[in-house]
Amino acid sequence: MTLQIGVIGTGMIGQDHIRRLTKVLSGIEVVGVTDIDQARAAAAAPEGAEVFATPTALISSDNVQAVVICSWGPAHEEQLLACIAAGKPAFCEKPLVTSEAAALRVIEAEVAFGRRLVQVGFMRRFDADYRRLKAVIDGGKLGAPLMFHSVHRNASVPEGLYTSEMPLNDTLVHDADISRWLLSDEVTGVEVRVPRRSSRGGELRDPVFVLLHMASGALVDVEISVNISYGYDIRGEVSCETGVAALPTRPAAVISDSNGIRQAIPEDWRERFIEAYDQEFREWIVAASEGTATGPSTWDGYAATLVADAALRAVASGGFESINMIAKPGLYGPPTAMAAE
Ligand SMILES: NC(=O)c1ccc[n+]([C@@H]2O[C@H](COP(=O)([O-])OP(=O)(O)OC[C@H]3O[C@@H](n4cnc5c(N)ncnc54)[C@H](O)[C@@H]3O)[C@@H](O)[C@H]2O)c1
Ligand SMILES: O[C@H]1[C@H](O)[C@@H](O)[C@H](O)[C@@H](O)[C@H]1O
Questions:
Q1: Substitution site in 72, 168, 174 for ligand 2 pocket (most atoms within 8 Å of beta carbon)
Q2: How far apart are CA 273 and CA 319, in angstroms?
Q3: Together in a domain, 109 and 128
Q4: Which pLDDT value is given to residue 340?
């Protein structure tokens, strides 16, 4: 059976996902697209796909069985709620939503529906290197994880569109999610330090240094640099009681020329996580074909939203900002460290 998919938002990642859904993966057909920029939607539409005037029209179409949301974060809530109301599985790019209140409304709707329908685009969980790192930590041979050093560097970000809040509410959400998942832990508080500003980003608050306090007592430090120019560089190292486990340096062709011997660094997220995005969709397609979702959930999107909110408060206060989660609904699995009481 072929799953008929509609894509909302045909910008950078929408186009990349349409490419993988039409040229890489099987078991699906992109039957519809929409974007507030109708010309962009028409240009991105695969042959034979319908260009819908609005997300509502796409979601309610009888031809669309599942939805991929790649619009801007502030638009996600309305589109997710419409998918849940229609009972259609939705893959939603990060961030899930852009406020705690919005995250709670999506949780409430999905819990009332009674089955998981939403998968959030935290693609690092599908990356083979991160999966091997988690297997080592879960294996327990290195003892308990004590510290996680997470480095998140972008070569550049879209000028004018990427604001000073975004290192914390757009970029950090990946590190927040991967920390919770890798360490099987929950974030209970956040501190942020702002070092000397990089002259490459103009007035942008860049870089930032974030400290995540985990429920177990483990600490996570995150470097976010979004104008590092040399490439898209993602690193991670977990210090445990009797050893250290780290992401490997990615294999790349070794080039020897008059500049020396060197290996290329990915240019951006599309290249670094290409296999992870393919794999997250493979797993989503299986789940969505069964009318549900897998992997990062609305609950995980909610948790990352709380971290982003706390980080923004921490910049303003200069101190420690705590996080208080609601009790975890059973739909999202057993209680976590924080919600256990
Ligand atoms: N997982 C990742 O690594 C990753 C990478 C890039 C982007 N993203 C996320 O994907 C989303 C899109 O990012 P992008 O880089 O493609 O941005 P983009 O600006 O290139 O594209 C967004 C598109 O959505 C459209 N849009 C916005 N609001 C809409 C609405 N209400 N209805 C219909 N269309 C609407 C815009 O016109 C635009 O074409 C963001 O949430 C971003 O954080 C995730
Ligand atoms: O939307 C993008 C995307 O999520 C990337 O994975 C991240 O590295 C960028 O900082 C962010 O702006």
A1: 174
A2: 34
A3: no
A4: 39
78, containing H or E segment: helix 73-86
User: Helix, strand, or coil here: 132?
Assistant: helix
Specify the residue with its C-alpha closest to ligand 1, atom 18: 11
pLDDT score at 337: 62
The three-class DSSP label of residue 25 is coil
Token digits of residue 16: 């990349």
Please name the residue whose Cα sits nearest to atom 2 of ligand 2: 171
337: in domain:
no
In the chain, the number of structural domains is 2
Within a domain: residue 329?
no
- The number of beta carbons lying within 10 Å of the beta carbon of residue 35 is 23
Atom of ligand 2 nearest to the CA of 93: 4
Q: Per residue, what are the HEC states of 244-306?
A: EEECCCCCCCEEEECCEEEECCCCCHHHHCHHHHHHHHHHHHHHHHCCCCCCCCHHHHHHHHH
Tell me which residues of the chain have a pLDDT lower than 50.
Answer: 339-341
Task: Give the domain extent around 59.
Answer: 3-122+275-297
Burial class for 179, CB neighbours closer than 10 Å (0-12, 13-18, 19+): buried
pLDDT of residue 1: 80
Q: Copy the structure tokens of residue 279.
A: 């794999």
Does the reported pTM lie above 0.90? yes
Distance from residue 126's CA to the centre of ligand 1 (Å): 20
Alpha carbon 239 to chain centroid, angstroms: 24
Q: Cα separations (Å) of 316 from 100, 193, 265?
A: 18, 11, 34
Of 156, 105, 53, the C-alpha closest to 305 is: 105
